[in-house]
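Re-run with default settings, no changes from the original entry. Doing this only to confirm the output is reproducible before filing.
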Amino acid sequence: DIAKKEGSLAEFAKGYRTFGITRSEKGFTYREWLPEAKQVFLVGEFNGWQNSTPLHPEGFGRWAVHLPDKPGGGGSAVPHRCQV
């Protein structure tokens, strides 16, 4: 099943490049592997510790949420040194 979904075991092992918090040109993406999850939220100081930032299933146990930067160069949606 890993070869079918990921291409190979070697490609699957490169998950550290996509899981956790990663930066893109337009914001951050938070991704976790939670194969048995029914619902997942990212909580932290940035959203007042509320279940208001849901992750969306991507298939094969992956869940992710994209956090775009604030408009007009206003900075990151999750400030530096913010607890999550």
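The mean pLDDT is 88. The first helix runs from residue 2 to 6.
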